[in-house]
């Protein structure tokens, strides 16, 4: 990948012995023992155990990420990222593979601004438990994984998507500075993995919008259109929970009460930003679970803290212009919105599809194939407006 700055640097992993131990740790741990230790339900998720076809790949990802995060622990960033930090490429060589870390210092600073400790990040993505394979209804050929604690989401990406993400990264960080309670998914790292002399595979890491997942009953991926936006639900009693789509949401409403005005304003700010980046095909993830009686209303046991910026983020704007809100005292508070009877998980994901020539041609083809119907490949301006209107129409 072309980088405008100092160019790639190649280093050995901080602890080669630890790296080799990490790469084999999952195979030496009994699957039954791990399942006994983990008491959280994993409906729709499958452990990548030693018999899984992706086991070797994910073990290398765990070993490489453990070593890469150790670098940021040993060499913490002392201030906001520079232009060189956004374009740095670090390659760590381990036995049998190499892991690249793109814009590592910039992402380390972003993680710090979110209050995420590097040791916790390392523990989630390292060898402490097997990754989980996520059963996706996406039409892309990407692979989807979750960390063993389901806190972080990993997704393989094509090279051109990675280039788009990195090109937008400075403006993405700036947007989160200006709007610290943004609905945009928190992108935490971009990496490459090369096995032996093979082709590089790229993947991104983000904070999972659907966390904690233990009480979530329904999940949706919303694009604000109708073509190819239906998923056959899992049979009743099936252990698999699918991410459903727009047409599955028909007849449902998100009840937010006084929180609705905040959500509409934030959707307006975030979709305007994505329109400026000339991107489309992003999704609004929506999930919810019912609140218990003692969690509802002003006298509930849910403690709210005063609206704040995320740690380390400063802005010259007035707080009102940043569209801050009261955050629930809960994990993943930036993606949680409590209504009178339901807790909602909301986040905008998949921010790397640029409206270039290929998408323009796809728009013309779909216009001819689906006359009078709405589909995802439209101009960024129409896409942003339509998704905002969907939220406006489905909230009260």
**Strand adjacency order, main sheet:** 1-3-4-8-9-7-6-5-2
The share of residues in helices is 25-40%
Q: Classify the beta-strand content into a percent band.
A: 15-25%
The average pLDDT is 85
Count of DSSP strands: 18
**Count of separate DSSP helical elements:** 10
Radius of gyration: 21 Å
Identify low-pLDDT runs.
Answer: 1-7, 16-43, 301-315
Q: How is the secondary structure organized here?
A:
Layout: E1 8-12, H1 16-28, H2 31-37, E2 45-47, H3 55-74, H4 83-87, E3 89-94, E4 97-102, H5 104-113, H6 118-125, E5 132-134, E6 144-146, E7 152-157, H7 159-178, E8 187-195, E9 201-207, E10 218-222, E11 243-245, H8 260-276, E12 279-280, E13 283-290, E14 304-305, E15 327-328, E16 336-338, E17 342-349, E18 353-354, H9 357-369, H10 380-393
In short:
With 396 residues, this protein is an alpha+beta fold. It has helices at 16-28, 31-37, 55-74, 83-87, 104-113, 118-125, 159-178, 260-276, 357-369, 380-393, and strands at residues 8-12, 45-47, 89-94, 97-102, 132-134, 144-146, 152-157, 187-195, 201-207, 218-222, 243-245, 279-280, 283-290, 304-305, 327-328, 336-338, 342-349, 353-354.
Describe the model.
By secondary structure, the chain is of the alpha+beta class. The chain has 2 domains: 200 residues, Phosphatidylinositol Phosphate Kinase II Beta (2-Layer Sandwich), CATH 3.30.800; 176 residues, Phosphatidylinositol Phosphate Kinase Iibeta, Chain: A, domain 2 (2-Layer Sandwich), CATH 3.30.810.10. The chain is built from 10 helices and 18 strands. The strands form 4 sheets. A 9-stranded mixed β-sheet has the order 1-3-4-8-9-7-6-5-2. A 5-stranded mixed β-sheet has the order 11-10-13-17-16, with no helix packed on it. The N and C termini lie far apart (46 Å). The N terminus is likely disordered.
